[in-house]
Amino acid sequence: MSSALVPGSCHDRALSTQQPLRLNERTHCGADMGYQGLQQLHALTWLPFKATQYRPLDEEQRAYNRALARVRIKVEHVIRSLKIFSILAERYRNRCRRFALRVNLIAGLYNRFLLYS
Asked: What does the pLDDT average to over 75-87?
């Protein structure tokens, strides 16, 4: 799945409200706390529990957060690897209309690397 690309800086959550999600209703979506409210748009969204000063997390909630973090770290590693190409880490200074093509090519190269490693 490839995310939409828009000019300028835009938070992922704002982008998901501007362009409707095309997720199957049976697809699970694991997200971080930046996506609060996504549960109203997609029923199978997994968000971590947040502790407060007066209501700490119990052991079951901590185990859930750890399990979700184990899944999400793989996604964060992919994002890090794409940033190594500097196309996502820095300002893009080439033709804007080719940006989406280049990002998708780099993502395809990384997918192929994952497939054969």
From this structure: 79
